[in-house]
Every structure is written in C-alpha cells, then in structure tokens.
Amino acid sequence: MAVITRRKFLSFTAAGPLAVSVLSQAAASTPSGSTELTAPERARQRIQQQHLPNLPLITHEGKNVLFYDDLVKDKVVSLNFFFAKCEEICPLVMANLSKVQKILGDQVGRDIFMYSFTLKPEEDNAAVLKHQHEMYGAGPGWTFLTAKPDDMEHLRRALGFTYPDPAIDKDKTQHIGNIRFGNEPLTLWSACPGMAHAQWVAETLEYIIHPERSRVQRP
Amino acid sequence: MYYNVFGEKVSRRRFKEMQEAAKNRRELIAAGLTSRRDLFKMGLLTAGGMLIAKSGLSARAQTQIPAGSPTQIQTNNPPSSGSSTSPGTNQNCAPSNQLASPNTRAFISPLPIIPLAATVPLSSLNPQPTNAPNTAAGEVRAFPHQGPTNYHNLFPDANKLSVYYRFTQEQFTTSQMSPDLPPQTIWGFNDGTGTRSPGPTYRATYGVPQLTRNINLLPTITPVNDTGFGVASVTTHLHNSHNPSESDGNPCDFYTNGHFCDQYYPNVLAGFSTQQFHNTGDINESLATLWYHDHRVDFTSQNTYKGLTGFYCLFNNLDTGDETTGFRLPSFPQFDIPLMFNDKVFDQHSGELVFDLFNLDGILGDKFLVNGVIQPFFQVSPRRYRFRMLDTGPSRFYEFFLTGNVGGTGNPTTNPFFLIGTDGNLIPKPVQVTSVRIGPAERVDVVVDFTNFAGQTLYFENRLNQINGLGPVAVDSALFPQNSPNTECVGINNNPQPAILAAGAGNLILQFQVTGPRVRDNSLPPSKQTFYTLPTTTDTPRVVRTFKFDRLNGQWSINGQFMDCSHPRFTVQQNTAEHWLLTNLTGDWTHPIHIHLEEHQIMNRNRVAPTVPADIGRKDVTQLHPNERVELFFRFRDWLHKYPIHCHNVVHEDHAMMALWNIEATGDTVLVP
Hints:
The structure holds 2 protein chains of 2 kinds.
Chain A: H1 6-15, H2 17-28, H3 39-51, E1 56-59, E2 64-66, H4 67-72, E3 76-82, H5 89-104, E4 113-118, H6 126-135, E5 142-146, H7 149-158, H8 166-170, E6 178-183, E7 188-193, H9 198-209
Parallel strand pairs in A: 3-4, 4-5
Antiparallel strand pairs in A: 1-2, 1-5, 3-6, 6-7
Helix pairs in contact in A: 2-3, 5-9
Chain B: E1 2-3, E2 9-10, H1 12-31, H2 36-41, H3 61-64, H4 146-150, E3 163-174, E4 184-190, E5 195-196, E6 199-205, E7 210-216, E8 236-239, E9 260-265, E10 289-294, H5 300-305, E11 309-315, E12 336-346, E13 353-354, E14 367-370, E15 373-374, E16 377-379, E17 384-391, E18 398-404, E19 413-415, E20 417-422, E21 425-433, E22 435-438, E23 443-449, E24 457-462, E25 507-513, E26 543-552, E27 555-558, E28 571-573, E29 576-584, E30 591-595, E31 600-605, E32 618-619, E33 621-624, E34 628-636, E35 641-647, H6 650-654, E36 658-664
Parallel strand pairs in B: 3-7, 6-11, 12-17, 16-25, 26-29, 28-36
Antiparallel strand pairs in B: 1-2, 3-4, 4-5, 7-9, 8-10, 10-11, 12-13, 12-14, 14-15, 17-23, 18-19, 18-22, 18-24, 20-21, 20-23, 24-25, 26-27, 29-34, 30-33, 30-35, 31-32, 31-34, 35-36
C-alpha cells in the first residue's frame, strides 16, 4: 500500500465533501449568524479539519457513530489505540486505563469520555471489542471502537499516532502507546504516556476537565 | 467445541490457556501491577520489553511469539560505531510533512532591541510580599523563601529588598512578526509598561537579591482560545538560575488567572553555604545569560511558542556591562544584544500562528524569528558587539555561521568570530570559531567584530540540516563532533542529506547592515581576554547515577519511567558532588537534556574528553546525541527541595521526558533512578 503522507491526507480532507460539511456547519453555528468566523472559531475549525475527521466508526456495542460529531465535539476526551491480539504494550496501557477509569469514577461518561480504537479493524469487530471491553472492566463512559481499515488508518494519522519512519510505522508491535487527551471546545490538547502512573494520568485529565484549577505546590 | 474471541476454533487446552491468561491479566490489574517496572520486578517482562509469554498474559502468547524479538526492525543504515550502540532507523532522514507558511519578505523590519524590565516600588505590590507563602491572597508557593528563612544574615526578608518587579502574563495582539502577516493574538509579559514577547530583559546584579511577583492575568480559559493552542495556566522558570526551589518555577506548580507566585531571586554565587566559599560563593560559578519561560507541565511547548519567554542578564564586578571596566566586554545594552531565536509556522490561508498539537516527535517552523520578528535586519557600527544567542525551540537545532558576500560576485564568505560563553557562562578564554551550534534552551555568547566590514552586509546563517523535529540529520557517532560531510542519511531515498549546508544555502536569519556611525570601541579584543577558570571536577562523587533516555512505543521515558508530578525519583545530598551518566541508546534522537539548579561540566562523551569548544565550559543543557553516553560532573549546593531533569526539546518534555528529584540534607544512593 502506498504510504499516505500527512500532507496528502490533509489535502484530501481539505478538498473532500467532509471538510465542506464541517466548514458550513461551523459557519452556520457562529453566534452572529454571519459566515465570518472569530479567531477562536477558526482555530477550533482548523484543529477539526486537520485532526478530528468525522469518520464513521462502530462501537463495541455495534452502534454506528461519527468520530467528530458523536465522540469528540463539545467533549473532554481521552484517545488511544490498541488491538485485541496485542502481546506487549496494549495489556499494560489498557489495564492502566482501567485504573484511570476507576480513579476518575463517575466523571467518566459525564465530564470525560474515554475512547480506545483498534489498530487492527480487520480482526477486531464489535464482538471482539465487546469481549475486550468486558475483560478490562470498562464502564459505560469508555468506548472501544472499530471501523473500515482505511478509515481507521486515516484516523490514526490524523491523531498523530505515527512514526516518521514508514517501516516502523507499519510495525504494529511498536505502535504508539500514548494517550492523547483534549478539551475540544476549549482547544486544549496534549498527550501523556499510556504507561505513566494511573494516578498521575487521572490527575492530568482532571486538569483538562477543569483547566481553571491551579496545582498548589506540595512539600 | 471451544472458540477464541476471534471466532476461531481452538483446542480445549488452548481454551484453558486463554482463560488463564484473562485471569492473570485481571489479577495484574487488581494488584496494580501495570507499570513496566512492576512487571520487570515480578519477572514478567524481559529487558527487551517483551511480556514473558509463558506467564500467559496474552491469550495468544503460546502460539504467537516467535523466538526472536518482534521489536527487531529492518534498518538500512550502516552499524554505528562502538559495541554497545543500537542501530538507528534514520527517522531523522525523513522530512516532516508540515504545511508551509505564507510568503513573508525578509530583512524589511528592524531587529527589536528588547527593553529592560522596569522595577516597581514595594508599595505597588499589594499585598506586600511575605517570607511565608500568602496562600490566602492567592499565592501559589509551598515553602517559605529559603534565603531569609535559612540564611538570614545573607538575604533580607521578602518585604525588605531593594529591587522589585511586578510581571503579569497577559494576552495581547501584535503585528511585529511580519508586515506580510495579519496581527497575531499571543501571550507575553507585562512589567507595567506594556505586554510584549519576548518579555522585558532583566538586568540583574550579583549581590542584589530581587523579587518578582508573577501574576497570571491570561484570559480565563472559558470560553475560547484565540490560537487554538496554549493553556492559560503558568509557572515561570528562571532557566539556570541558582535559585531556591520555591522560586524556580517548577513545572508541577502551575496556576491560573488571578493567582500569583512571588519569586525571590537571590542572585548569589553557587557554593555560598559551603565551607570553601563561605558566604560569598565561588566566583568561577558566575552566570551571565539566563532566560525565563513558562514551564507548565504537558504544555510548555505550546505556551513558550505562544510567547512566554524572556531574557535575564546577570552582571558582577568583572562582567560589568561596561566596556571600560572588568573584563571590558562590549557595553550593555548598546553593544551587548540578547538575540532570541525561534521558528514558527503560520496558516497558509489566514496567516495565523499555528502549532501542530498532534505531534509527538518534535516540530519545526519554516519562519525564523529573532526577538519576535521574522528575519529582521540590524544596523550595526563597525566595532565589536557581544551577542547572547538563545534557541527557545520548540525542536530546532542551529549551527550559526557569519556569512558575507551573499548575492555578490563570487561565493559567499564564512567569517570567524569569537565564542565567549556557553549556556550563558563565560568560558576561560574566548575561542575563535567559524560556527557555533546550539539546541533548544542552549545559549552561546559570542563577540563579533564588524570593524573591517564597514558598508557591508553580513548574516547569521543557520546551515545545520534538520528536516524534521527529531533532531539534525543523523551524524554517525564515530564521526561526531561537528561538520561531518557524511551522515547516516546518505543513500536514503536517493536523497543524501549533508550535515552542514553550503555557505548561503542555509537559512539567512539575521541581517547585519554595517552602516552605523563609527563609534569608539573601548572593549578589549577577545584574543586578549581571559575570564573565569573552570571549577575543579576532581571531587570524588558521592554517587554515580545513570539516566537512560529512551522511547518505548512512542512514549518518551527516563529509565523506563514517565513523568509524575507526585513522585520524585531520588534525593541528592546537599553540598556533595555526583556524576550523572546520561545515555541515549537509540540510534535516532538528539535530546538536549537540562538539569535545574546547578550547572555541570561534561567529563566525556562515550569516554572521550570533550573536544569542541562548546562542550568545554559550564553547561546547564547538554546535547545527548544518538548512541551516546555522556558523563557529567555536578556539585549540588545551597538550596533544598524539588527540581526536574528533562529533555528541552519541549515536545519531548511535554510528553513526559522529565523526572523530579529532590535535594535534601540527607540524600539517597539510588543508582538508576
């Protein structure tokens, strides 16, 4: 398969009908009713167009959803990739996320939504993901997702779960184990290692849910 | 009949294995054994990062894992030198696919000379500073000021100082970057005279302690963010200052709008609490060019890119800022000019400043700014100038040449100049060089003599070839140090990448027009100058610690662990010496490693004593190249409590390539923290 560079992908989305619909939608939702966007609206739209494509996905419950509209828009989210047959890093990251979910408690599904995407959509159908979901004790605010392989590949690239070297990028045993987190309406995005201490990952996410909080120095 | 989760038929034995695996995994989760270290300790993980198959952690374990390591990958580069090195994968030979900025004209705007910070009277700080943190008034500080608390004979109380600053972090709109771009809404520092980025330059003096009240007045986070990047919660670090930890600007102590932190800068020489340099400190530890920047954990790259940076110049009775006294270096601020270099990207259509939020490797800009302006010009007089050059990143390394005769008949010329300081510290003797390399957060002080160039045009040109955020194109470690014509990218995609580009073929960043009036030059020629001697490095270290900088499935790590604000890794004993071994066994990445509080000297790179001038001297950032082990000498003195060690490629830093450590009266001897 030809390597799709980020630039090619961006030019694809920029020209495609998807981008147009996102654009018109954003324009229509400006408070003034004019088509002129404010700087923050432009910034939010830029992130949308470049990184948050509105691709169709299927949840572990077999539900059809759209990535941007249904999963990310107006939400605080955590995003990571895994696959069911993964031998190495996935069990560690997913078990860690399971702990993070416990620490965050009922904030998950209300203040923050956790999403785990399969890197092997050709293997991991909804039933497989449902089994995984149970195995990791995932609650209702944590959704596992699959998609058409091409769509999932686009999503992975758009979200920056990639290596610069295409050979390494293709090797799924080396896949990126980070958790990307974001507050979509406030355009706050960063990432942390999936294997960092669960307590600290949870705390990091809470500062994205509540960006107005200061962290007082502790001895 | 038995099936696995993929709907495949399996034997009863295999089914039992799978059930066992799932049970094991649940047990691990229940037991909290999910970190790499935990599993390693339990013998469940091999050194190569493989989960041990026989433990049945994976439902596919018995049948999937071949004898060889599945992490082995094909590389097409020659093996690197040395026996304990790992092959690179030439990831830094692949150009990044970032979008291009709109066109901007070069050398049409003058270089901004950053104004000096304005002091304020004590009365303008309301409430008055206190030694103990004023938590009730919104101050974010856990410890009382250590100076007046622990060394009352040396440091006045926080409300009895002679120099105060009131700095606010604010959003502002500026057109200074380029007349070809729309106004940009960014963040900066306001000392009371207006908000700017770079922030105002401090002129500080040894022996004169001062206090800055840093107040966060950035717009409340809701509802929106003008640029789409940056978080309006800050902590301002004074880079390389010998500062008590409560005033250091720790990454984990961030605060939002309306909160403040009183940062007490003692301006004291390291060693003042030791017997040897009792009360005065060691003059050979003098610092000169420091900088301040936001250090908010996970967001430092975005917040500094958005403008939260500035200079702090520190003088004493030798490095006086007056060319008729002391070392007789060119006078500050007329002929001694701080230059802040960074690279940025602008949206092709709107021309607005953008930041690639979804990048883990490091990001490059295609527009080069000096003191906040894209490719400015600077009119100089035919005389000597001191330049304090700082690379604020996020991820670019530079090798600066002084190039002349660009566009003239004949080839561009490469002109020598003098290196006088590394990381803001004067080296023992100026060294004549034709180029100088710096990475993110590093500084060099140089003296350029324009006397013989009257009427001509010269450039600071970056000729270092870097095509993505990982670092400069790979240089075989055997051929390191610098300027190797041969890189590991030779033969990759039929696109050989030289390490150093030809004169005139690099980035012309700052233009010098030597058209100023002839003025008196009282500075001493660098060839006749000597500065401080280097502190000895012969003390027996109390402990030799090892730090392995690595990448595990895209996660930046130090000794296999990740940043955690709540867990310092080790404790250094106050007023002792240590050696730190920084190792980078990956073949690809260059990491500029920064350690707070104390400077270090490089004892060796791969057991070879430093050879390039930029490595001989006191440092606070050391470039750790692919397949390198660098040994550093430290003395940890005077101040207590928490500091970080981290990669200053701020994109790596923000993705957890950082660890916290403490300095206390009693230390530990953890060898691999």
